[in-house]
Amino acid sequence: EVQLVESGGGLVQPGRSLKLSCVASGFTFSNYGMNWIRQAPGKGLEWVAYISSGSSYIYYAETVKGRFTISRDNAKNTLYLQMTSLRSEDTALYYCARPRLTTVAPNWFAYWGQGTLVTVSS
Amino acid sequence: DIVMTQSPSSLAVSAGETVTINCKSSQSLLSSGNQKNYLAWYQQKPGQSPKLLIYLASTRESGVPDRFIGSGSGTDFTLTISSVQAEDLADYYCQQHYSYPLTFGSGTKLEIK
Description:
The complex is a heterodimer of chains A (122) and B (113). With 122 residues, chain A is mainly beta. Helices cover 0% and strands 50% of the residues of chain A. In chain A, strands 2, 4, 5, 6, 9, 10 and 11 form a seven-stranded mixed β-sheet that branches. A four-stranded antiparallel β-sheet of chain A has the order 1-3-8-7, with no helix packed on it. In chain A, a hairpin with a 6-residue loop joins strand 5 (45-51) and strand 6. Chain A starts with a strand and ends with a strand. In chain B, a hairpin with a 6-residue loop joins strand 4 and strand 5. In chain B, strands 2, 4, 5, 6, 9, 10 and 11 form a seven-stranded mixed β-sheet that branches. Chain B has a four-stranded antiparallel β-sheet with strand order 1-3-8-7, with no helix packed on it.
């Protein structure tokens, strides 16, 4: 069974940093690209970032480019999101999501974690 | 970036009725290479993570009831839920998987009268 478990969320002041983790199990993590997707309270879904299986391809949403860094450790089956210069508008539930296919090409999200809540406030 | 416009933003129906949710993309999601449309639909029940319903515009995910039907091509897509049940109370989102950045529609809240 595919499982994705996020952690690392919490309350952080504007301008500060936070690092999220997502531990994967139930599949060969190193075969799949991975994504972060967020959802502000009461709002819709926003794709944040993608990293390919071997970290060669990385894409970001414009809203986080230059502030967030996606990375992964295939030996630890773990996906990361380093968030810096946090703003109030980054407040959201952050999901990690695995696509259906192993290709780098965009595809759909077949598996989602439960999310970790990041609150940016003074 | 591809903008996804979803409508309506909310609707309320009685159990047993048929529901139609629309999703329009700012550019075609039809691949000229394989003639497939790169659009997915998700269901998000209150307090839960999103769940994949449909991909490639009309392919139902394993385990999804056949009352959920995806259709459309190019820039105009529809999710039809026939004979709505109380358990279908949820938010529904479309998503283009044609190009990065991946983008979602703004969502449709389905309420059951």
